[in-house]
Specification:
By secondary structure, the protein is of the alpha+beta class. The protein has helices at 24-74, 152-157; strands at 3-4, 11-12, 85-91, 103-112, 117-129, 132-133, 138-145. The strands form 2 sheets. Strands 3, 4, 5, 6 and 7 form a 5-stranded antiparallel sheet that branches. A two-stranded antiparallel sheet has the order 1-2. The longest helix has 51 residues, at 24-74.
Length: 158
């Protein structure tokens, strides 16, 4: 097979055609492999982002529950039952807390467990999707004894 010399355009006998490029089939196969690998990597990244968002929401709900428990500890003995609420929905930005975003629902139970003890249980649900709350609440509880609380005058003096 004869081909033309590139410099002068003359036909050069015995020179073979250079077949060092890729064929269309090879390019298509490589493209398909690239798409499959890329979609697998993207699926992993999306799953990791969802797990990270869920962990962040859970952490924020834990902080909100801990703040509510701390509020109970900061109240006088007679004021502790006033923090009880049921299915109170709020945005974290409305509460002056460590959280700046998110929608949460809180239930606070205050139940006597003895003559000088109150059990304070806080449950916080968070939105996982629009109109869908977390399957289980973040729950924190503590027992407060009237013997452990100081009077408000003692707290102000500190």
């Amino acid at each position: 097979m004869n081909i033309r010399d590139n410099d002068r355009g003359d036909v050069v006998p015995g020179r073979k055609r250079n077949n060092s490029g890729f064929t269309l089939v090879e390019v298509m196969v490589a493209s398909i492999v690239l798409v499959i690998v890329s979609s697998g990597i993207m699926s992993g990244i999306i799953a990791a982002l969802k797990v990270q968002a869920n962990a962040t929401d859970y952490y924020r709900a834990t902080c909100l529950a801990r703040n509510r428990i701390q509020l109970a500890w900061s109240r006088s003995w007679d004021e502790i039952p006033t923090i009880a609420d049921s299915n109170f929905q709020f945005n974290a930005i409305d509460e002056e807390t460590v959280c700046d975003t998110g929608e949460y629902m809180r239930t606070t139970f205050v139940t006597p467990t003895g003559t000088n003890c109150l059990n304070v249980t806080v449950q916080i649900w968070y939105r996982v999707k629009p109109q869908v709350w977390s399957p289980q609440p973040v729950t924190m509880e503590t027992i407060i004894s009237s013997n452990l609380l100081t009077s408000s005058e003692d707290r102000r003096a500190r």
